[in-house]
Amino acid sequence: MRSKALVRSKALGLLAALLLMAAGPYDYTRGMLTKQPNQVTSIDFTLANSPLVVNARTSPECDFAPGGLISCRGASSVAGPAINPTTGALLGAGNWGQSQNLFPYSNAFSSWAQNLNISVADGTAPGPTGLLGASVVTPTTTSGLHQVASTVGITGANPYSVWLFVRQNGYSRVYFGFSNGAGTVGVGQTFDVSAGTVVGSPVVTGSPTSYSVIGPTAVGIGYYKIGLTVALGGSYGSGETTASVDNGTGISFAGDGTSGLIFGGAQIEQSVVATPYIPTSGVAVTRAADALQLSSAAFGQAVNPLQGAFFADVFIPALYPSASGVNHTIAVLSDGTANNRYTFQVNQGTTTYQAQVNAGGGATNVQLAGFAAGTLHRIGGIWNGALVGGCIDGGTPSTS
Asked: What are the respective helix, strand and coil percentages of the chain, to the nearest 5?
């Protein structure tokens, strides 16, 4: 029989893995709760009155590897779930919230509103999946900017994630920008898709409310996913996306007529995170929300019920008032009964993220951390034998 110390040590290893799974400014570890649970056999991220869960993932069958990493079925020693960065698919179970690609032409860049000093050959190169469908973009020999641009309708006060799959093709740098239609407020960033790095700092025009850089993230066969998440602020009704070729010295130059880049697809969505690619051809396309509800046999096939992890990127625009009688439920893990379950939620009329533990019909609330409305939070949870944990945004792991 394993000692309690060993069980706790493995739980801490899983918490360390949760830390490593976090991307960008997010990490996991504030607060941990313990009890003696029944075997977890179901998980649900699609509950009524839930917040906007823009991305939720559970770990596949896993074990522990050196350094606190999780070793997953089909992918060894990876930090958390093995996720396809192009499609969002993984070995395990996952959930994406509803999203819409507002670009009417996601990979036909010759149809974008502006093709400036650039030749665009749509569908002549393999995209990130290896299938034909990407556009070869080649600066002309004219001296000046060499770019494509597209303008879509937006609500200026809201955050938008806008991004592009890019591959080198003679040149390896791209300047990617998002601004209001007049160009008076916006953000731009140069990326090197050979080195897989950002070049310099973001170029900020005016006073956008917030911004962050997406990537560069390698997505296969030489492509990188690059982009920005920007809230322009104000009451702007349109947003312009530009992608300009950089020859290594800047974005204003005379091309050689053969060197360029390959664009494999683009997306703009009203979202605080970049979700999987939604192809479009002539009109904006909406992807319905996934329905991650796994129970009994289906759960056991995708996730180890004895030990595992989940996380969710959660955005709640405004909290329910106390009089509503409704909590923002994020996830429920249970043995299939109402009497034995873990409910991760944000309480009505409060800014408290908590786990409610139901054991044998009795309920105990464990306060984990503060939760601010209007801000993206990454929450996590683990189960491992006798230990179950919940966490949010940052801090130091704790056990009892």
From this structure: 10, 50, 40
Residue, of 6 and 25, whose pLDDT is higher: 6
Distance CA 382, CA 397 (A): 12
pLDDT range class, residue 7, cuts 50, 70, 90: very low
Q: Which residues pair with 365 in a beta bridge?
A: 356
What is the chain's mean pLDDT, rounded? 73
368 alpha carbon, distance to own chain's centre: 23
d(CA 64, CA 132): 39
Higher pLDDT among residues 128 and 120, named by residue = 120
User: Nearest 5°: phi and psi at 5?
Assistant: -65, -40
Asked if 74 and 270 count as a contact pair (C-beta separation under 8 A), the reply is no
Dump pLDDT digits (tens) for 343-389.
Answer: 777 777 667 777 677 766 666 676 666 777 777 776 666 655 555 55
Other CB atoms within 10 Å distance of the CB of residue 195: 13
φ and ψ of 334, to 5 deg: -155, 175
- 3-state SS, 314-341, equals EECCCCCCHHHCCCEEEEEEECCCCCCE
> Is-contact 93 56, C-beta < 8 A?
no
Q: What string of DSSP letters covers 257-291?
A: SS-EEEEEEEEEESSSSPPPP---BSS-EEEPPP-
Residue 335, number of CB atoms within 10 A of its CB: 14
Q: Is the pTM of this model over 0.70?
A: no
Asked if 29 contacts 39 with a C-beta cutoff of 8 angstroms, the reply is no
